[in-house]
Recover the amino acids of this structure.
């Protein structure tokens, strides 16, 4: 019996093919050789599918080399209908933020240099003034994410002491991270009060003792409790904390800077509301509803913010110059709310009328049908994502691709510009709400390539 594997070329023979030698002009020879070995290993495993010609071998090796060199972090089109999709990088940045990053990245900067004094400065000053102006806070500090902000606040104000929190607020956030675990790492001893569904002011008062270092209020931004429930507002908690002589730390989370009720998204407090509640410190994210880069923003009492700034942990949790540049540029947009809604991508996506999304979906579907793809438009519901407005459903529209949904979905994810959609009722749905209009033509190209 003839073994088809005996007819396979050797690594050396393939490396000497003209087309493969050309690949070595753009990649190290050792990397090209590794790609050759992997293609040969595939051929030995499935001889019946081995390349039959020199050109086919070269194409297979080039494809393997391209896959090897492709970064694991790459742009994707978010067609899931979840606007602030944590797994897909949350908020895309505004053009002014991208420009600010490029400007700061291409040379040196005044990151920690005071140009007026001609001496060493602090990176903590760069966004503080804008945050004070926009939120009404006495002072502000930026660290690398909201969890870090909470850890820094607790470690500074309640390390080795008790931190009181309602059982109904011990939430789990993305990636299985839980508030109790984060609080424990801060060095504070968590004291739970109330029950899952009902916590009263007296629960906090009874828990206060000489060992209390802080009261913590966690905004339930990623789930809702309905029915027989009770909770104490941050404003009321601020009074209880003041009476007890301890700070109130308010984990506000979402980073919302503008009231979105006019666009059908009511009920979420803004950062200014959170500060006005009287909390000693407010912590929130930069890459959720604020629409900026990943960051943890701390707002509040000047003396306490200064104490956090002096904590050695602040250095470990600090942000870099690119984050500060992007955040500052994003915050500047909020001086003109109408401009912010138009130019901050996350806000523009959340507030776009369904009719506008439908018109785009119909245009995309029409181009696909003209190219031989079975596509149609369907009304769907999008969500905010990012642990905000958990019960909100936003009217949207999707392009529905009929046929082998699993195969096409897999092909879209494997494309040069991956597209992440959603399979429901046996069909692949590509919701356009979280796709920038400028990328509609790229979506058409990606779908055409995946359905050939």
């Amino acid at each position: 019996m003839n073994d088809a594997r005996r007819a396979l070329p050797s690594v050396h023979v393939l490396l000497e093919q003209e087309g493969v030698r050309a690949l070595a002009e753009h990649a190290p020879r050792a990397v090209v050789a590794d790609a050759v070995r992997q293609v040969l290993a595939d051929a030995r495993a499935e001889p019946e599918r081995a390349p039959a010609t020199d050109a086919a071998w070269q194409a297979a090796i080039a494809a393997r080399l391209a896959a090897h060199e492709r970064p694991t972090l790459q742009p994707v089109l978010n067609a899931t209908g979840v606007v602030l999709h944590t797994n897909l990088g949350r908020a895309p940045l505004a053009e002014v933020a991208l420009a600010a990053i490029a400007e700061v990245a291409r040379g040196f900067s005044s990151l920690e240099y005071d140009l007026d004094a001609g001496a060493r400065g602090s990176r903590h000053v760069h966004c503080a003034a804008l945050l004070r102006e926009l939120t009404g806070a006495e002072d502000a500090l930026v660290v690398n994410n909201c969890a870090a902000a909470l850890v820094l606040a607790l470690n500074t104000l309640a390390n080795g002491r008790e931190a009181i929190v309602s059982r109904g607020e011990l939430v789990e956030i993305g990636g299985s991270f839980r508030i109790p675990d984060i609080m424990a790492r801060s060095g504070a001893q968590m004291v739970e009060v109330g029950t899952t569904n009902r916590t009263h002011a007296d629960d906090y008062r009874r828990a206060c003792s000489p060992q209390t270092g802080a009261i913590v209020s966690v905004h339930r931004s990623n789930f809702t409790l309905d029915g027989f429930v009770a909770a104490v507002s941050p404003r009321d908690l601020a009074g209880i904390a003041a009476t007890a002589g301890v700070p109130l730390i308010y984990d506000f989370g979402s980073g919302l800077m503008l009231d979105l009720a006019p666009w059908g998204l009511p009920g979420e407090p803004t950062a200014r509301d959170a500060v006005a509640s009287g909390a000693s410190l407010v912590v929130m994210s930069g890459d959720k509803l604020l629409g900026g880069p990943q960051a943890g923003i701390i707002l509040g009492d000047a003396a306490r913010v200064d104490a956090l700034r002096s904590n050695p942990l602040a250095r470990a949790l600090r942000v870099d110059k690119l984050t500060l540049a992007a955040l500052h540029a994003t915050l500047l947009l909020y001086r003109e709310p109408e401009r912010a809604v138009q130019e901050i991508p996350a806000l523009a996506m959340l507030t776009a009328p369904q009719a506008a999304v439908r018109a785009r979906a119909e245009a995309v579907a029409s181009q696909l049908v003209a190219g031989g793809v079975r596509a149609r438009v369907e009304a769907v519901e999008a969500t905010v994502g990012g642990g905000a407005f958990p019960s909100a459903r936003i009217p949207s529209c999707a392009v529905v691709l009929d046929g082998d949904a699993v195969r096409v979905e897999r092909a879209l994810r494997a494309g040069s510009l991956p597209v992440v959609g959603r399979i429901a009722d046996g069909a692949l749905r590509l919701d356009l709400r979280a796709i920038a209009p400028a990328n509609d033509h790229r979506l058409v190209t990606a779908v055409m390539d995946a359905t050939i």
